[in-house]
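Request:
Um, any thoughts?
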Amino acid sequence: MSIFKRSIGSGILASLLVIAMSFALFFVAFPLDNWQALWNMRVFELPIVLDILIGALFLGSVIGAWNGWYWKQRFKELESGLEQLQKGTFKEEEFPIVLCEMKQVAEKLSATQRYLMEQTKISQKLVDERVEDQEKKMEEVISEERNRLARELHDSVSQELFAASMMVSAITEGNVNWDDLTAKQLQQVEMMIQQSQLEMRALLLHLRPVALKDKSLTDGMKQLLEELKQKVPIEVTWKMEPVPLSKGVEDHLFRIFQESVSNTLRHSKARSLDIWLNERDGFVILRVMDDGIGFDLEESQSGSYGLQNMKERAAEVGATLRVVSIPNQGTRLEVRVPIIGTEGDEND
């Protein structure tokens, strides 16, 4: 039963009780000798008893209907407040205060909303921490897998390519009178094996852990280039100075350097590779130059994932990346990283 119907029923019942009590008190105070007179006395052509009863029913219905409508409105306001609370948009100052009890309800709703918001913040923080922890674990797993693949490739495929290269070299240098076609094919096989070795070394370079860990940028670059000099048949030279960059920026710059060296080994067919790292006029400048076959820069803009990846990394640290490549003359890559707020950070 709705509150509206219940209020009408309560109003009628209360009116009848009041009329009955009033009649009882009246007859006790003024007893009647002839009860028939009440039935014979008429108002609006009805016995006065019926008139009083009808009036009581009408008055009780009106009072009950008004009371039911009033509380129905209050419950609607409360329902609206709960809906706003559910949506997180409840505002205590906009909640209608028609009773002191409604003010208490508004305060409770406002307190509940603050509590829910705090719980939501805590929940979101826990989710963020969980996601960050998952990403960290994924990075660790990926790094371990990269190391494992690099070791397996170095110990198996790389060694087999080296052995194949030595065997082909021994065959071509042997005192055997090969015909021109066979000699040419053997030379092509030897060149293919040597190119595969370069591809493998570039792949191993890619699979190396890219984090600098406890090393500075210059130390990490020098260590990588020292290893390249021992394994790659091209001349590698460099000139580097310590540069004032944060660890995050150093890591991005090291990844760009690693990507560029890998591209040189895989595609350039260069005989020499020159690296330059220094600070000039508020910028840290990295240059990677080779004397390889070069490439068409316009064609590579859309098709080269490595070049796009380097540009994105440079943009993340506010750096500019410029590539100049001339066919059959070589390629030059330059990254300019602005040095921002190093002194201010120290003072803070």
User: Anything to note?
Assistant: DSSP finds eleven helices and seven strands in the chain. Residues 132 and 138 are 10 Å apart (CA to CA).
